[in-house]
Amino acid sequence: MPLRTLKEETADSLVLQWVLHVQNYKLALDKNRCAGCQICSLACPKEAITLQEQPRTKGQKARKAKIDVDLSKCNFCGICDITCPYGAIKISMNGKHALPVVEKESFPELIRDIRADESKADPDCLKVQDPCPLGLINITSDAASGKVRVKVDKEHCPCCTVCEVKLPDMMHVRKMLSGKINIRTEKCPDGCKDCLDVCPITGALYVSESDRKVRPNESFCVYCGACKVVCPVDEALEFKRTHINHTPIHSGAWNKTLERLTSPVEMTKELKTRGSAKARESVRKRVGLKVA
Fold first, then answer.
1. Residue 1: its pLDDT value, please?
2. Is pLDDT at 46 greater than 70 in this prediction?
3. 177-249+257-264: CATH topology
4. Cα separation of 93 and 138, whole Å?
5. Residue 37: pLDDT above 50?
6. Secondary structure of the chain as H, E, C letters
7. CATH topology of 4-103 equal to that of 113-173?
């Protein structure tokens, strides 16, 4: 048991700590990066994370849900850190980033596959406005060589692919989360744009010029679910995740998390795929032995 526990909250952050004899565990939530998307609360095996929907003020935009963490339930396992698409939560031990569930090989890491090919960069790239909706791409010109340099903050990138469209050939992104989203506009209240108000990815949702209803652009959607959390009509926004890009793992803990984040059907598909891959590898090894 910890000698001392601490919980501090400001307008920009939420910090939890366990202070032990020789170790200090810390959970830090960056509220400015948090999208209130519910993924961490679904993934948490201890049900320590909850979302608090914010009251709507007439005449103002909808506000994203607020995250709270119950210090009496949190064990600083690192699952919320791993699954947050925006890198808003960090777990550390004695001041160093730590992921206990990964170290114990009981949980995978999500793959943020973002590549910047600087050989395809040219001075025109410097003129592109907001290549990343979250401001995670910095493009500069090296004064000495004249070459264009591209720096990407991969740690906080949810892999929306907006940069691929704005910087074709140079940026290459594989989605970390895949899924399906459908807005049943006939169910949407007149003038409602709550989902658009909280969506952190510019262009993932837009207002149709024909009927002024919000519609999704799945090319940019990262399937975080922030829109679903604030939708005032359950039937108006249909949403589900169908695939998570992650490192290989054989773990009951991950299977349970995958089911909560996607569905039993999608989890079964992954298990079948994993089983087929294992069977193919087994056959390949047997054939190899016979050939030898």
1. 62
2. yes
3. Alpha-Beta Plaits (3.30.70)
4. 30
5. yes
6. CCCEEEEEECCCEEEEEEECCCCEEEEEEECCCCCCCCHHHHHCCCCCEEEECCCCCCCCCCCCCEEEECCCCCCCCCHHHHHCCCCCEEEEECCEECCHHHHCCCCCCECCEEEECHHHCCHHHHHCCCCCCCCCEEEEECCCCCCEEEEECHHHCCCCCHHHHHCCCCEEEECCEEEEEEECHHHCCCCCCHHHHHCCCCCCEEECCCCCCEEECCCCCCCCCHHHHHCCCHHHEEEEEEEECECCCCCHHHHHHHHHHCCHHHHHHHHHHHHHHHHHHHHHHHHHHHHC
7. yes
Task: Please give the CATH topology (third level) of the domain spanning 113-173.
Answer: Alpha-Beta Plaits (3.30.70)
Beta bridge partners of 90: 28
Assign residue 209 a region (left: φ > 0; alpha: ψ between -120 and 50; beta: otherwise). alpha
Give the integer Cα–Cα distance in Å for 132 and 159.
Answer: 10
Distance CA 2, CA 18 (A): 6
pLDDT in tens, 193-222: 999 999 999 999 999 999 999 999 999 999
**111 pLDDT higher than 60:** yes
* Digit-coded pLDDT (tens) for 49-80: 999 999 988 889 999 999 999 999 999 999 99
In this structure, whether the domain defined by 4-103 belongs to CATH 3.90.25 is answered with: no
Give residue for tokens 């810390």. Answer: 26
Give me the residue label for tokens 């909850």: 50
Q: How confident is the model at residue 134 (pLDDT cuts 50, 70, 90)?
A: very high
pLDDT at position 263: 73
